[in-house]
Amino acid sequence: MQAEPLVARSEYLWVEGGPAAIHAHMARPVVMALDRHGAHRVLDLGCGNGWLTAALARCGFEATGLDLSHSGIQIARAAHPEVPFHQGDALLPPPAAWQGRFDAVVAVETVDHVARPEQLLAHALQVLRPGGLLLLSVPYHGYLKNLGIALLGRTDLRLQALLHHGRLKFFSRQTLTALAVQAGFTPLDLQRLGRVPPLARSMLLVARR
């Protein structure tokens, strides 16, 4: 059996620059939350192919993207040359020049894919100015939704066990809030997005440094 290329195991491979499925219900609430709290300079952690970062820039935010994926950053830079994108690991300490630089950090469907999400939030805290915002989204897990997934036999699809970059963490409203509080943030709002609330696709937590 032929071995899988190393690059396929070492990064999430992006092949196109369009919006991901998550952006259909996530982009507008993120923009509204940033605007409502007066954020301007925004860091998109786990920006992937840069679609959301570029959308934020088109909405008037000074947006910067960071992602570990080489292919994602290559696509982002080619598609949106006017937006700064950086290839790097959000679990490593941020550059000194980013300390206290940003009004907001956005991490859409990112912390559920990393083994140490508290490290990502610790670094988000460092790059935020005093009073800066954290916008954190993860898939929604609730009793009725999980029961429906189990009854329909879609648990494997939800858990993504065979994907190299599948989900590692599964947050409830309580555990997502606790993650932010333990990292030093003060939660401001948590909303369910997509579909009706009991079957929501995602949760979006807004917290303040």
Keywords:
alpha/beta; 209 residues; 34% helix; globular; 8 helices; disordered N terminus; 23% strand
Which overall shape is indicated by the principal axes computed on the Cα atoms? Answer: globular
Cα gyration radius (Å): 17 Å
Which spans have pLDDT < 50 for at least 5 consecutive residues? 1-9
In DSSP terms (H or I, runs of 4 or more residues), the helix count works out at 8
The ordered string of helix (H) and strand (E) elements is HHEHEHEEHEHHHEE
Q: Which class best fits the helix and strand makeup?
A: alpha/beta
Spatial strand order of the main sheet? 3-2-1-4-5-7-6
Tell me the major beta sheet: 7 strands, mixed
How much of the sequence lies in strands comes to 15-25%
Spatial gap, N to C terminus:
50 Å
Helix amount, in percent?
25-40%
Total number of strands: 7
Q: Please, what is the average pLDDT?
A: 88
